[in-house]
Amino acid sequence: MDKNKESRIYTNVQNVYQGNDWKSWQRLNTALAMTLNAGIIAGMFFDEDDFKNICANFKGGYWFGCDRDNCYGERFYSLAVEHNNLSACKSFESWKNRKPFKLDGKRICIHFVFEWQDLRVCCTSFDDDGSYLIACAYESFYAHGGGGYGKPIKRFKITLDDLKAENKRLKELRKTKNVAKTSN
To answer: 120: part of which helix (H) or strand (E)?
Structure first.
């Protein structure tokens, strides 16, 4: 971020934080989260350091959600992935110091459901150091999406290298299917 000019999303959060005589931390924290949500959904541009600076300067520990480091703020990342806000995704990844986990060109976030080793799995968390994600297979999944429920039947620790190999396999599989279609 330019030291002399904050991004619009940073300024919006700052205005909510500083612009009112809050008598309730609960109301303030909710308003801050809603402001960040709205910016993500609206497709506002995020500077690379926005998540880091917003969390540090506006007491994000109280409103980013989740009490585990490896899940801290992940709801914002999931929202950015869902709404295809690439700059928000990159800002979040920079703050977490992790590379994007992608499968078939799509970023994986918490509650992302995908096929892994012939099972339907749901991403449940990322390791603190960003080296792997955890995905679980369940007997049942919610009808509306958003993951599985009940006791997991299998748990996977998936690294960036695992995803790279799977993406290569999927690419080769598509190539083989295209060749088969054109030869028929």
So the answer is: strand 119-126
Q: Which residues contact 6 (CB under 8 A, 6 or more apart)?
A: 14, 47
For residue 68, is pLDDT > 60?
Answer: no
Number of structural domains in the chain: 2
pTM listed for this prediction = 0.87
Q: 69 with 152, same domain?
A: no
> Per-residue DSSP letters for 47-112?
-TTHHHHHHHHTTGGGTS--SSGGGTTHHHHHHHHHTT-HHHHHHHHHHHT----EETTEE--TT-
Shared domain for 63 and 12, answered yes or no, is: yes
CA gap 109, 141 in Å, rounded: 17
Q: Which domain holds residue 138?
A: 98-184
In the structure, what pLDDT confidence band is assigned to residue 179 with cuts at 50, 70 and 90? low
pLDDT at 181 over 70: no
Q: How far is 40 from 62, CA to CA, in rounded Å?
A: 19
CA–CA separation, 147 and 149 (whole Å): 7
Decide if 124 contacts 134 (C-beta within 8 A): yes
Do residues 112 and 72 both lie within one domain?
no
